[in-house]
Amino acid sequence: MSFMNRVNEFESFDFDGYFQSVTTADIETSLNRDHLEPYDLLNLLSKPAQMFLEEMAQKARLITQQYFGRTIGLYAPMYISDYCSNHCTYCGFNTAMNFKRTGFP
Ligand code: SF4
User: Fold this and answer.
1) Whose CA is nearest to atom 2 of ligand 1?
2) Which residues lie across from 84 on neighbouring strands?
3) Model-level pTM?
4) pLDDT beyond 70 at 103
């Protein structure tokens, strides 16, 4: 399934209703899965999941080590302008931010 299909699938989704229906058993089931699906993510973002923070941290650590091993990645982005066509709301480089630019358009 493509990312856009996922976006369309959840476009009119009743997130509040879903979050209110999540039980601790749902959260435990999600934590015990080998492969997490989108509804598992919702379960782990629900309010009752606050009681499982340590279990989620352990699961996240396990998955991270499965994908990357015991490594540390360091990134040093090099910006060659103060203009970015993405619209990350927290970032001053995004094109929607209005200030006098020193780089390209
Ligand atoms: S708007 Fe900022 S945070 Fe978002 S991609 Fe561009 S430079 Fe990165």
Assistant:
1) 91
2) 94
3) 0.62
4) no
